[in-house]
From TrEMBL:
GO terms for molecular function: oxidoreductase activity. Keywords: Oxidoreductase. This is SDR family NAD(P)-dependent oxidoreductase. Pfam families: adh_short_C2 (PF13561). It comes from the Bacteria.
Amino acid sequence: MTARVAVITGGASGIGRATCLKFAKKGDKVVVADFNEAMAEEIVELIKAEGGEAIFVKTDVSKQEDVEALVNITVDVYGRIDIMFNNAGIGAGGMILEQNMEGYFKTIGVNQHGVAFGIMAAGRKMKELGSKGVIINTASVFGYLASHGTFAYQASKGAVRMMTQTAALELGAYGIRVVGIAPGGVDTPIIQGYKDMGIIDKLNASQMRGKLIKPEAIANAVYLLSLDEADVINGSIVMVDDGYAS
Ligand code: NAI
């Protein structure tokens, strides 16, 4: 069987890192896309040391030319692209009336535009190559539920939901599947930024296990969604939240 090629943005840390390792362990070739060079190179080395195959492509997902280059380099190196995991994200906090506008635009730029650029670049390339690929986008339970102090983040993740549904509708005509995940509270560096706001306590109290989810558990869900066996899961955002939104 030909190995699949998976591009994973935000692959240097947290959910992205765990997903790179999961796909590589399963025999897929992995393209680690991130702007954190040192951490991404470390993942590539780790994958290679375990007998897997991976490359790093330095990418700022908020720049469309970077994302286009990422997809082109992937196909230049591996000849195909089967999975595009648009996962890189940041979370500038702030109450609406005191919103720091730089943080607002940055959050929308990475979380919303970054996913849009990924859908467009991968969608075009998959159509061109006739590959029946899958695009997986990271939304959040915060794309569904309101919370104090996360205005820009909430807006960006709500957008990811609708972009996923709309892209599934349009790209389905070419055999390309588009799905999303909505994680609950996951134990990664991003969430530590919200510690002082009581958000971690709230997440812990509402998740069935009473604690943050391990990134490896989210990676398992992403992997399952990438499989052909999941081919009728299309246009959906799958809650991977240990019951938070229930
Ligand atoms: P993380 O902070 O561990 O990882 C985020 C990665 O994205 C980092 O490697 C960072 O360098 C990279 N990144 C940030 N901006 C980038 C840019 N402009 N271009 C390229 N790479 C960039 O955080 P985590 O938790 O792994 O986040 C992954 C995704 O999961 C994000 O979209 C986040 O919003 C989402 N999420 C996380 C939750 C959590 O509780 N940790 C809950 C729900 C969603």
